[in-house]
Amino acid sequence: MSKRNPNKIKASVGENIFQVVALIVISILSISMIYPFLNSIALAFNEGYDSLKGGIYLWPRIPTFENFRVVWVNNNLMQAAFVSVFRTVLGTALHVVLSVCCAFAMSKKAYPGRKLIVTYLLIPTLISGGVVPYYILLRNIGLINNIWLFVLTGVYSFFNIVILRTYFEGLPHEIEEAARIDGCGHVRMLTQIIVPISLPVIATIGMYSAVGHWNDWFTGEFYVTKPELKPLQTVLTNFLKTTTQQIDITGQQHGQQQASTFTSESMKMAVLVIVTLPILATYPLLQKYFIKGVLIGSVKG
Amino acid sequence: MQTTTSEFIPAKKTLGREIWKNKALYIMALPMIVAVFIFNYIPLYGIILAFKNFKFNLGIMASPWVEPWYAYFERFFTHTYFEKIMVNTLAISLMKIITMFVFSVVLALVLNELKSMTFKKVSQTALYLPHFMSWTIVVGFLSRFLSLDYGLLNEIKVALVGGDPILWLGEPKYFWGIIVLSNLWKEVGWGSILYIAGIAGIDQSLYESASLDGAGKLKQAWYITVPSIAPIMGISLTMSIAGILYAGFDQVWLLKSAQTYDVAMIIDTYVMDIGLKQGQYGYATAVSLFQGAIGFTMLLSFNYIAKRYFSISLW
Question: Above 0.90 for ipTM, yes or no?
Fold first, then answer.
């Protein structure tokens, strides 16, 4: 990548040069991370054949929804989107509920078997049977080609449990003590006291899980063969890997006999935008939660 | 009647009461425990496949043992591709670990030095973004960027150095570089978070007294900042080393092509190819077992070394 000349400013103190260079380097880095998304959005909304001429960077030249329309209709993206949303919502809900309960139990200190439970939950992060035994298990319990597999995938995340536990342990003891004096048992403690004041952290865990579900293409690729069960990410992956000719043929088959404005490239861009948009849209707002989660989890964990 | 725990009551009675008193906690943890048992512990039993000649109709239990018990391992180690697979895996993995390690620390140091808080916050938002994208998306961008006909990299290359555009993803010699650099692009931002947090916690007076003693920024960084985040670095490194034989399935699987087959073959892709695709369950499990065993050993050894010589430990 071309760099702007850092010597543009006459060097006064070495520190100022460093500030300028650092600013430039970080800027270039940051821009390089955002630009591809903006470029893809621009290309997705631009007429395919026009894009071939080049020169589309941040804004479409000839705006159109054609790419999205063609891609949506031809690939049954509605079905894939349903699968993705289904798994993200239910999978995240399941993961959050189980993790919160489990983390709460782990955060209590003085009861028999606690250490056992913690160790029991730690071990799977260290050793694993690998892909094949997992696949065989899934087959034996009938989760291959089953939409519920997606919901159960990723239900266990030691990292998330630790984040929650660390947070619970860090809450002021007075709150709990006061409740106990009033005769509050474990269940009410969790549901009526701890959860309401832990919403930010719980939301963070939820978001980690949601992003994980949304981005997972592996499960849909290797543990599912029925096309109607493939989530968006898997469909996108296959779509991107498809050769240009195949896409052009398919496009022509579906009613675009006369001059069409889309190309395989523009269709790819449209799919990419569809798949990325949810995360891209919510990310800036949720960013601080994501960071907080990592920090809480790592300080203790 | 509630019994308060006192040393005069026999342990057996107290234990039972303690369990009953806390029954809610056990019930809370139960669903997760069951889920982990099903999806994480039961598959451990499948490790036995690494020693069995698996027949579908017989199932795991009844399938005959493979002769000799190390047959699959022997097969893997003497395989014509074994050397290639190991070299690729180790090379890619090590390069990724080292570059991520170095550059996330450097990035954290640089970000820490920035004077403008707004710039720092805005750029961090940008830097963490690629981490939340799947490799599918990133590879999508990468394919465009490296494309022969309309890729930005080729545009730049031809403009600066002239000559013909290169089919980057088709050339074996560029493959590792592409893998390592794209991994950096995707993860360096997120990787620096821990260090940024660590640096933020350093006592500012240390820097003040250092500069009073005449230490410049560079010396301050080397003698104050780096040692302060050394524990974090140690733990990060230890955990990375444990994954040394896992070179990154998603990324390599999506980026490899027929031309780069030789340099792209890593243990994970090999296991997927022979295991799930060709159905050689026993052999694939053996290779996975090898991967896991080495990783586990490295984790223990590294943690031991870190504990003994640097007082850093994961547990």
Answer: no
